[in-house]
Structure formats: structure tokens, C-alpha cells
Amino acid sequence: MIEYRIRVSRRSRSVRLSVSHYSGVVVTVPSGFDTSEVPGIILRKEEWIKRSIEKIRSSAPARQIPARVDLRSIGRSFALEVHASPRGRSLLVEENDVLKLFVNPHNKRFPFALLRKWVRKKSKEILIPWLERVSRDHGLPYNSCAIRSQRTRWGSCSAKKNISLNSALLFLSPELVGYLMIHELCHTVEMNHSKKFWELVERHCTGSRRLDKELTSAAKSMEWWLR
User: Fold this and answer.
1) 3-state SS, residue 6
2) Residue 184, SS3?
3) Nearest one of 89, 186, 180, 105 to 140, comparing CA atoms
4) Do 78 and 134 sit in the same domain of this protein?
5) What is the model's pLDDT at position 108?
6) What's the mean pLDDT when you consider all of the chain?
7) DSSP SS3 for 25
8) 92: Cβ–Cβ under 8 A, 6 or more apart, which residues?
9) C-alpha span between 30 and 115 (Å, rounded)
10) The CATH number of the domain where 172 resides is what?
11) Fewer Cβ atoms within 10 A, N terminus or C terminus of the chain?
């Protein structure tokens, strides 16, 4: 029997199947979709799923569990300790500068999702107040802020001045995080990347073009288990 998990997406318009080394088999369904139909979908796609799993197992490089989790943005480093869970349930506990990950020894898939969940929680605690300070200091108001786990964007700003920040920003230098926040806040004034926009960014952050290039390059070195 194929193990899978269901992810409900408000943005999705159709059912999508994905298979990855760390997330396993994921079925993404639109909001309101009857999930009782999922087993039938899995059955119909069983051969494709098995081929995809085998291909990943044969080609995926060996990945080591990180010994430390370094949040460069705030200059903190957490040692990661892995323990067998006495109750068979995976659980992550933060104690001072140590992350204790209790895992089910019978579960073949390491629970990287717990690490990603912890990162999202920390990013809400750290990045949202940080954005508020940058907004206030530079006189660039915004409407709301949401934390997302995105693979292709460090941040975004909507026409309604709603800003999204990537939780992986925690792993960048404070200088790059500050620049990204100013970049998105400037979009509350100029919703484009015109000359006027870049002039505005430069007024609030000297060396913005250099920092923008560094930010683009930083995506290549993002922690692999965050993806």
C-alpha cells in the first residue's frame, strides 16, 4: 500500500500528485474537494508513483541530518539532537540553544517537516516584528504580513500592500534580510521594477543593486531540507 499525505490548497484548481525524496507522495487538492476520491486516484496512478519513487531512490544523493541549525539573521545557532521517541510519536522540542527531535524509530521517513514547521514558527516570531520596525523607521507603511515557505521567491508585495516573507530568510545575513524588507516595502509605493522604483530603494538602502544580486545568489545555497 502506498503511503501518502493530502495537502489542501486554496490556490489549486485541480488535483496534483508529487513525489519527492523528503516529502514522499503528496496529493494536493483544491479547497472543498471530496478527499474520499483520493484513494481511487492513488490506485489509478499507482504504477507512475512506484516508478517515481524508484527513480528518486536510485538517483537521490545521500543527505545527512544537519548537526546544527544556524539562523544567521539573528546570530543564533541551535544544536540538533535526535532521540528515539518513547511514545512512537515524532516531536520537536526547543530547549535554550538545543533542538531535541524525538522520532519514531520505525518510521522510514525522517520528519524534516517538523524542522520546517519550527522554522515557520520562528520566522513569525522574528520576521514580522522586524518588518514592522523597518516599516516604521523608513516611513513605508504596509497592510499585513504573512510568512510562507516558498521555493522561488524571498518575498512579495500585493497591490493591497500585503507583504509575504519567505521563512528561509532566517538563514540569510541581517543585511540581506533588511534589504529584502525594504525592497518589498518600496513596492507599496511603486508596484514595478522601474527606474523610479530602484531610485526609491536606493534612497532607503544604499548599495541595493549589489544586495539584490547577493540575494539572488543566496537562493542556491538555501538549506536543502527547507525545500
Assistant:
1) strand
2) helix
3) 186
4) no
5) 63
6) 89
7) strand
8) 99, 100, 101, 102, 111, 114, 115, 117, 118
9) 26
10) 3.30.2010.10
11) N
Residues 31 and 92 in one domain: no
110 near 154, Cβ under 8 Å? Answer: no
The H-or-E segment that residue 131 falls in is helix 112-138
Q: What is the pLDDT of residue 209?
A: 94
Under DSSP, the state recorded for 58 is H
pLDDT value at residue 89: 82
SS3 state of residue 219: helix
219 or 137, greater pLDDT: 137
- Which tens digit of pLDDT belongs to each residue from 33-56? 998 999 999 999 999 998 888 887
Q: Can you spell out the DSSP letters for 6-75?
A: EEEESS-SS-EEEEETTTEEEEEEETT--GGGHHHHHHHTHHHHHHHHHHHHHHPPP-PPPSEEEEGGGT
Residue with cell 484513494: 39
Largest CA distance in the chain: 59
Same domain for 98 and 185, yes or no, is: no
More confident residue, 72 or 219: 72
Is the pLDDT confidence value at 132 over 90?
A: yes
**In which element (H, E) is residue 166 found?**
strand 162-166
Residue 105 has pLDDT above 80, yes or no: no
User: Are the C-beta atoms of 103 and 90 separated by less than 8 Å?
Assistant: yes
Grid coordinates representing 71 are 539562523
The domain containing residue 193 runs over which residues?
117-226
Say if CB 148 and CB 226 are below 8 A apart. no
- Residue with cell string 512512537: 88
3-state class (DSSP) for residue 9: strand
